[in-house]
Design goal:
Keywords: Membrane, Transmembrane, Transmembrane helix. The protein is an all-alpha fold. It has one helix and no strands. It has one domain.
Length: 72
């Protein structure tokens, strides 16, 4: 009888420990996934900003070229 109670207690403790470890792993994975999404989002924003800067630079060059053509 004592052996059965001891077995049930040990099984319960190991089960709770396994659940705790699983929850911690899930939280860590979820946090890592969130960080990856943020990095990906930042990379996309950076690419968009670079494209806009490039377009702006080309537009500025075109304006300068037109003004140079008019006055020279």
């Amino acid at each position: 009888m004592l052996a059965r109670i001891k077995f049930l207690i040990m099984t319960s403790i190991s089960g709770l420990a396994a659940i705790y470890i699983a929850i911690q792993a899930y939280r860590k994975g979820k946090q890592a996934g969130s960080k990856a999404v943020i990095k990906e989002h930042e990379a996309i924003i950076t690419k968009i900003e670079e494209k806009e800067e490039k377009k702006h630079g080309i537009t500025q060059e075109n304006v300068v070229d037109r003004l140079n053509d008019r006055f020279h």
